[in-house]
Amino acid sequence: MNNVYKHVASGFCAGILITLVVGCGVLPKSKKTVAKDPPAKGQSQDGSLAHESSLLGAADLTLSSGYRFNEVTQSSLIASMNKDGRLYNNQPQPPAAPTTPDVFARCLTFGDITVESTKTSLKLYKSIDVSDCFKNSESNPVVRPVFFKATWKYYIYLTCTSKDLSSLNGKKISDLAADPKNADSFGCTNGTRLEQTLFESDTTEVTADGTRVAHLRALSHTGTVDFQACGFSSSGTTAKQGDDCIDFSKSEFDAKDTSSVNGSAVSETKTADISQYTYNGVTDDHSADTNVWHNTGKIGVSYNGWTGNVTYSGSNTAPSYSFKKTSTSVPTTGALTATASE
Q1: 179-201: pLDDT as tens digits
Q2: Quick check: helix, strand or coil at residue 202?
Q3: pTM here?
Q4: Quick count: other Cβ atoms within 10 Å of Cβ 224?
């Protein structure tokens, strides 16, 4: 848990320029929060860095008006759960890493993001224009859009009671990631963490039938339901995810097609994927890398109209699941199968 370097990759996977698919689920109501960029540098009275804002607002945690969920079948739900790294302690790895990273791995990089830290806290924020990277990643010039604009924002806020973080101040996150000691939450074993990503793109394409104008907004949030940092702790070889933590992700895609004959609107499609994971007593046993699953506890899952739980009873015992679609009363039950991520 808490691997900040691979969170973006696990939250976002997509086709070039147009499609971005993340998980699904709807959060409980949270207190009103105004989305704005993180504040300028500042510290609280105890010397920790200030967290006064969020990339996201309350509206980001619900399905927007006019959008509908993409259909998720029972088989695709289970296949998705089997590959989801958030349900694992040590997920099996694919036989070999791809020789050429996909477009999101290439364009949504940490680059020269530098860390701001004090003894008890750490913060990093990055907002970059990734338009050119995505446009240049399309190998076929014929299908390149006539207009494409994309931005990516990333924010982490961490407090720590188990390690002095002040030595990390001013260092590049790419350099820190190369050190195994920083693999999980920058080497902190007890504290709180907030992590958010936001990707937005606007595309105009000319086709044989007319013009398509599309907008994509995709986001992820790990923290509390009211945009605060949530807890994590470790004692010996046992690590625990705070029960106040949720993992939330949403993508909404709006495409408007216009006829080339008379310029009239032909159709508009507004689709969404939303996921939410909640945690109850979830622990990991770090005594061996062969411990595949979380050791104890339950993870509540909400996924495009499906709700249910994954329950753990040992690091090497496949967890049981029970899911039910909102429109039906008969649950789907079984056990997950350890599967490598794609």
Answers
A1: 655 556 788 999 999 999 999 99
A2: strand
A3: 0.81
A4: 17
